[in-house]
Write the structure tokens for this entry.
Amino acid sequence: MTRKSGNSRPVRQSKAKEPVPKKGREPGKAPTSYDVARLAGVSQSAVSRAFSNNGYVSPAARKKIAAAAKTLGFRPNALARGLITRRSRLIAVVVADLYYSFYVAILHQLNGALRASGFQALLFSIPSGQDIDDMMPEVLAYQVDGVIMNSVRLSSRAPALCREAGVPVVTMNRIVDDPDVSAVATDNRAAGRLVGRFLQAAGHRRFAFVGGLADTSTSRDRQAGFRKGLGRAPLVEMGGFTYDGGHRAALALMRRADPPDAIFCASDIMAMGAMDALRFELGLTPGKDVSVVGFNNAAETAWRTYDLTSVTASAEELSHRAVEILAAMIDDPAAGPRRELLPGRLVLRSSARIPKDWPVDRPAQRPGSPEEKTADAKEM
């Protein structure tokens, strides 16, 4: 096409050029999936499938994509992908008492189980004295795909807030009163019952229970099971799930006119406080003068300082089952609540007298199970 200029000489108009795809990216800009696609010679959707592991990508194409991404320094934007898929792949993990090694072990196991399932943990630690309900709006503001709660200071309201927001929730090592909330926990009643029978079989006659918090199912169920195993009510003091609380509770029990010769504490940290009170305040020897049993089998229980007999609650098994239940709820929002109780086992150490012929690895049996009926018959 030509046109005439002012001096009537024909001028050829240049034809617009088609943009040429660039091999690589513009300087100063972060690389995108389109840059990776151009360099690898594949479609952008292939790059997306390769990094999301969602859909088929041939091995040859995957190799090209990986090489291009490495050359460009490309990193997938998980948040941007979440806007498209409406899945953040973030799981809020709400915990308390991180100074206690058992909860640190659970957090470590949870993180590994979540990553293996394609999720990323987002940690929320509840400050001492703060109500967990007050933290829930902040938790839900991160558009998490699900919530795992692991705290003795857990109310029934906190999981309900998640369900009202349409966010799946699982409680760990704690069962709230709401039957619509999924949970995985140690069978606290069966474990408490096992401890009661263990201490009776060792020849003890005066029993005490140091509870955690009166309004938590964890403490109530361990106490109820202990009473069932003994066939009578033990002396009771509350220790608030703390070392100092266990220390104070032991002193109060031992200064009674009828002090116990066996103490079952609802947590290891309280049992360690109780042992130190017996040794350093009263001059007694745990395991000889008074038997002491804890719960959770935290790392400190194996220290020579304590050598504490304790009910083991597997942090690994609890964590993996919690993630499996939550992942199933995320995949199928219509799925009903699931509750699983895992058996506890006694780990025998020197803090408690060991009955003659007591099995080294005797698990706690569910009430009414055939194994429990057999145990009942043997003890009659």
About this structure: The longest strand covers residues 90-95. The domain at 20-76 is CATH 1.10.260.40 (434 Repressor (Amino-terminal Domain)).
